[in-house]
Every structure is written in structure tokens, then in C-alpha cells.
TrEMBL record:
Membrane topology: Multi-pass membrane protein
Listed transmembrane segments: 20-41, 91-113, 125-152, 164-185, 191-210, 222-241, 247-273, 294-323, 335-356
The name this protein goes by in its record: Cation transporter
A Gene Ontology cellular-component term: membrane
Length: 392
């Protein structure tokens, strides 16, 4: 027992020293994107309703593709398959592939939205989605590589910090980029079309110089298949968000906090998935009920009350600064948030473990699956909390 207590103390110390700061930074970044969403939610719902169907999928896709890439880089660094340098050719190649992997699913989401009858400004929405995806994927790709390699060089476990920072940076960039292209479209169609052309040329240029080959794309067909399937699954979140956007907006805080809540759940799940994947590849887990992964979950669970309180605090502050209102603390969220995060971490570990037992690499499947499922669970969770606050 003393050995277990000592191990737990060490992991709790690491969770507070390494993971918690990255989760807090991630939360702050997420609220920046949430400020844009809360401010423009009514406009998007009125003028570009199709974006609400695509938005959860786009946000999840960033986490799916780039958190997976971060986990893959981490495993490659530990195994010596990747030089800890941004100049390694594998870095650019992985970024170019990730950009391609990001484009196809969001285009499919747009097409399904059109088929479901959401055709108002359909072409404009497609161009906004394509342009923002290329731009955000390029920036996020290098950010992912930098964070992972920098942490590795500083002898900090990349699995503890990369996924939260990458997913939240995706949230930070995704919503403002979408809104920026919408405002550009409304202000100058010529510049909007020109920017689309420049970004498509950039994508083709990167694919060319990185020499991405068909065989390399086929190696990631498992990842491509799962993120496309999960993008389709994200339509549950998308149509749910579209239907209940008014309820979420009426709850005030949740309109601003929505991206942060989703990303924080995804972050907790991704940290556990990344740690589990690395430990499994290194042979450090010998059974489902191994002690180490559950100690990791408990140590991270002890940080969740802080994140729940900060979500409330940041939401109240932003609502006051943007809208001039003083909403109450959402005690329903404060009390339930830690247990929702615990459920997602246990779910994450279980999925990662059993996928590995089936000879499926968790880096390619578990993290995308968990990120997507966290968005669905998180969207339902936010709506339930909104119903408790607003009623209906």
C-alpha cells in the first residue's frame, strides 16, 4: 500500500506540475475561440446555418488529426524513428498528409448538410470551410511538431502536454478563421476568391515538395477511414448544436464556454489515450487492470474540480466584458464536470487498451475516436446543463 500511495503522490505531482498548466492554457485558448462563437452565434445561425452542422466536426477533426499526429510523433521520438528537429523531412510530410486528411471529411460533412436541405449560402460555406481548413491545418501542423519536439528536448513527456495544447490551438484557430473568412466574403468577394486560390496553391506546393506518395497515404488509410467515419458521426453533434443553439445561447455562459468544455473533455481523454498508447508500445502495461494507468486516471481526476471552476469563472468574466451581464455560477456544471471527465478518461483507457489487443494502433484510432466521442458526449452534456439553467 505505501508503494501505491508513493506512486500516486508522484503522479499527482506530475499532473499538477505538467498536465494542469497545459489544461489551463488550453482552457484559456479555448475561451478565446468561444468568445468569437458566443459573439457571432446568432449571425451564423441566421445567415450561415450550415456551418453549425459542420462546426463540431471541424473542431473535432482538428483534435482527431493533429492530436493523433502529436501522439505518433511522441511514439516515434521515443523509438528513435524521428529526429527531434522541425527540419526532419518526416515532419513536413506528416503535415502535408494531415492537411489532406483534414480536407476530405469536412467536404463530406458539407455535402451531407446540403443533402439534408441546408442550402442557404451553400457554395460560400464550402469555400469558407476549405480555405479555413487549409490555413488552420498548416499553422496547426507546425505547432504540433514544435510542441512535441520541444517537450521531448526538455525531457517533458509530450503525451502529457501535446494533446491538450494542440486540440485547444485548433479551437483557437478554427472559429476565428471561419468568422474571418465570412467577414471577408461579405466585405470583398474578389479578395475572398483570391485567398482561396492562394491557399489551394499552397496545399499543392507542400504536397509536391514533401513528396507524399500513394504508398504513404495507404499506410494511414486506417486513420483516414476512422476520421472520415467519425466526421460523419459528428453530425450528431452538428445537428444537435443547430437544433439547440438558441438554448445554449440563452444560458449565456455556455455559449462562450461550449468550445472549452468540449476541448477539455477531449484533452483529458487524449492525455490518457496518448499515455496508454506509449506505455503499450513500450510494453509497460501487462493487463487491463494494471496499476499504472488507473493511477494516471486518479491523478488527473484530482485536477478536474479546478478546471470546472475555471470554466465558470472565465465564462462569467467574458459574459460581463462582452455583454455587460453578470450571470450566476453554474453549480450544476461545477458539481458534475469532474465525474463527466472521469467517465471520459475511463472510456479512453478502455478503448485504447482493447484496440491495442486487436493489433490496431491507438495512435491512429483511439485518439480520433475519443476526441470525436468527447464532442458528442460534451454537446449532450452542455445541452443538459443548459436545460437545467434555462428550463425547457
Amino acid at each position: 500500500m505505501p508503494v501505491i500511495v508513493q506512486d500516486l503522490k508522484g503522479k499527482v505531482k506530475n499532473a499538477y506540475r505538467v498536465s494542469l498548466p497545459s489544461l489551463v492554457v488550453s482552457l484559456i485558448i479555448g475561451f478565446f475561440g468561444g468568445t468569437f462563437l458566443g459573439t457571432y452565434l446568432d449571425k451564423i445561425n441566421r445567415d450561415y446555418p450550415g456551418l453549425l452542422v459542420i462546426l463540431p466536426g471541424m473542431m473535432g477533426l482538428r483534435g482527431n488529426v493533429f492530436s493523433s499526429m502529436a501522439s505518433r510523433f511522441s511514439t516515434m521520438l521515443y523509438l528513435g524513428d524521428l529526429e527531434p528537429s522541425l527540419r526532419d523531412k518526416k515532419v513536413l510530410k506528416n503535415i502535408a498528409i494531415a492537411m489532406l486528411l483534414s480536407l476530405i471529411p469536412v467536404t463530406i460533412l458539407w455535402a451531407i448538410g446540403v443533402l439534408r436541405g441546408i442550402r442557404y449560402h451553400a457554395l460560400e460555406i464550402l469555400l469558407v470551410v476549405v480555405s479555413s481548413t487549409i490555413l488552420v491545418s498548416f499553422i496547426l501542423g507546425y505547432f504540433t511538431a514544435f510542441v512535441t519536439i520541444f517537450a521531448f528536448k526538455k525531457e517533458i513527456d509530450p503525451d502529457s502536454i501535446a494533446s491538450p495544447l494542440v486540440a485547444s490551438m485548433g479551437d483557437l484557430l478554427t472559429i476565428p478563421a471561419l468568422i474571418a473568412f465570412i467577414l471577408l466574403l461579405e466585405r470583398s468577394k474578389e479578395i475572398f476568391w483570391g485567398s482561396n486560390l492562394v491557399l489551394i496553391v499552397l496545399l499543392l506546393f507542400l504536397i509536391g515538395i514533401s513528396r507524399v506518395r500513394k504508398a504513404e497515404l495507404l499506410e494511414l488509410r486506417e486513420l483516414f477511414t476512422i476520421i472520415t467515419a467519425l466526421a460523419l458521426l459528428s453530425l450528431i453533434s452538428g445537428f444537435t448544436l443547430q437544433r439547440f443553439s438558441g438554448l445554449i445561447q440563452a444560458s449565456i455562459i455556455l455559449g462562450f464556454a461550449y468550445p472549452s468544455i468540449l476541448s477539455s473533455f477531449g484533452n483529458y481523454g487524449s492525455i490518457i489515450a496518448a499515455k496508454t498508447s506509449t506505455a503499450l508500445h513500450l510494453g509497460e502495461i501487462d493487463g487491463y487492470f494494471s496499476r499504472e494507468p488507473f493511477l494516471e486516471i486518479v491523478s488527473l481526476f484530482l485536477t478536474t474540480p479546478i478546471i470546472g471552476l475555471l470554466i465558470n469563472a472565465f465564462g462569467i468574466l467574458i459574459a460581463y466584458l462582452i455583454l455587460g451581464v453578470e450571470p450566476r455560477v453554474i453549480y450544476e456544471l461545477v458539481l458534475s464536470y469532474p465525474f463527466m471527465a472521469l467517465f471520459i478518461m475511463l472510456y479512453s483507457y478502455t478503448i485504447s487498451y482493447f484496440l491495442f489487443q486487436k493489433n490496431i494502433d491507438p495512435d491512429n484510432v483511439a485518439i480520433p475516436l475519443i476526441s470525436n466521442n468527447s464532442d458528442i458526449f460534451g454537446t449532450i452534456y452542455v445541452i443538459l446543463i443548459a436545460k437545467l439553467i434555462v428550463g425547457g
